[in-house]
Amino acid sequence: MVTPPVVLTIAGSDSGGGAGIQADLKTFAALGVFGTSVITAITAQNTLGVTAVHPVPADVVAAQLDAVLGDLPVVAVKVGMISDPAVAKVIAERAGDLPNLVVDPVLVATAGSRLGEAGVVGLLLPYARVVTPNRHEAGALLGRRVETVDEMVSAAAELAALGPRAVVVTGSELALDVLHVDGGSTLLRGEPVATGNNHGSGCTFSSAIAVRLAAGDAVPSAVAAAKDYVNRGLRGGASWRLGAGPGPLDHFGWSA
Ligand SMILES: Nc1ncnc2c1ncn2[C@@H]1O[C@H](COP(=O)(O)OP(=O)(O)OP(=O)(O)O)[C@@H](O)[C@H]1O
Ligand SMILES: Cc1ncc(CO)c(N)n1
């Protein structure tokens, strides 16, 4: 086999396996890249919720980053859960070594637990090639409500003005996302999937974007491919039962 591209996720661990680092590494494996990981926090979590969060100290995050970047040829990076400003600073200081940086603002888990702060995630926006908030996260970053499609369009443009080269405000169950890139906005319409199993959809989406950027795609085609991959994962997992709450996606096409 030829040497695969190396992609890095900097994120929190979800013990339930559906979101966070676990969703990211599954996405990387499914899409044919070699996944590496820097863990920012350990969460005790399942499909019903989060029962404990243990942040990893900033110096240990820095050591993980240096270990990966000092040895492996990372070509794209996804950032998920960051709850500590000192960890955001460690990442920002190494931004020059983090190509194709996709930042997924993780603020609240599906079941309602707080996992991050808008003020901390905001520190990373200037370094991002792509930022992928859902409507709620976009609203938290801007300090107002973002609900309608018009509000998603203006939020994407305002977030782009904070420094990232592109912004995707995702519409969750609407399957309608707004992409802002190169000064213009595009509506991305997907096929809505009727499913309760959406735990980790945002993690999967941002990781899949990083994979396509690693392959050299421009942002619009990377985002379109990621949206398609998430849609297949949601459809595949729509009728399985993994846990009593919102379950994970089918990352590997097992249900196809
Ligand atoms: N039920 C659905 N049917 C079709 N597409 C969906 C559905 N739910 C989410 N998506 C798509 O999945 C992608 C991820 O966006 P989503 O808004 O779910 O992320 P998120 O809310 O950040 O996820 P998370 O719950 O992991 O935080 C987007 O392209 C969105 O349109
Ligand atoms: C660790 C972690 N990261 C991200 C999310 C968002 O889905 C989650 N629930 N848990």
Automatic annotation (TrEMBL):
Keywords: ATP-binding, Kinase, Nucleotide-binding, Thiamine biosynthesis, Transferase
Pathway assigned to this chain's UniProt record: Cofactor biosynthesis; thiamine diphosphate biosynthesis; 4-amino-2-methyl-5-diphosphomethylpyrimidine from 5-amino-1-(5-phospho-D-ribosyl)imidazole: step 3/3
Domain Pyridoxamine kinase/Phosphomethylpyrimidine kinase: 14-249
Keyword Protein biosynthesis among record annotations: no
GO MF entry, a single one: phosphomethylpyrimidine kinase activity
Annotated GO biological process: thiamine biosynthetic process; thiamine diphosphate biosynthetic process
Protein's job: Catalyzes the phosphorylation of hydroxymethylpyrimidine phosphate (HMP-P) to HMP-PP, and of HMP to HMP-P.
NCBIfam families: HMP-P_kinase
Protein name in UniProt: Hydroxymethylpyrimidine/phosphomethylpyrimidine kinase
